[in-house]
């Protein structure tokens, strides 16, 4: 008969996950924000244009392809500001800019 294995007292994986943030550094925050946003809005992410540490987590600006057009330079992109908590969970997002791929900032 197989022996049942139980976690040791005080070593619960749930408690460990709560103590140790799942996002480590700006790169982890950028990846978490891109994945979460893409899953919510259903548009592919193009990249990350800003990451900064916030008091309670991270603020990440993710660039998204909202409408693909031909030629590619006329496609519509948008920048979304994504707020993550310390564990990399999406707290809120908002679109802050929409622009044509070939356009430069003024």
From TrEMBL:
Organism: Streptomyces avermitilis
Any one GO biological process: gas vesicle organization
Record's compositionally biased regions (Low complexity): 24-39
Protein name from the UniProt record: Gas vesicle protein
Annotated stretches, region: Disordered: 1-39
Lineage start: Bacteria, Bacillati, Actinomycetota, Actinomycetes, Kitasatosporales
InterPro entries: Gas-vesicle_GvpO (IPR008634)
Domain of life of the native organism: Bacteria
């Amino acid at each position: 008969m197989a022996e049942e294995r139980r976690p040791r007292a005080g070593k619960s994986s749930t408690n460990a996950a709560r103590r140790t943030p799942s996002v480590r550094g700006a790169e982890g925050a950028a990846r978490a924000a891109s994945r979460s946003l893409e899953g919510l809005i259903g548009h592919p992410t193009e990249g990350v244009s800003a990451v900064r540490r916030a008091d309670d987590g991270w603020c990440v600006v993710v660039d998204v392809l909202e409408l693909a057009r031909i030629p590619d330079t006329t496609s519509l992109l948008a920048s979304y500001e994504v707020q993550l908590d310390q564990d990399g969970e999406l707290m809120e997002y908002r679109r802050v800019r929409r622009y044509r791929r070939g356009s430069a900032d003024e």
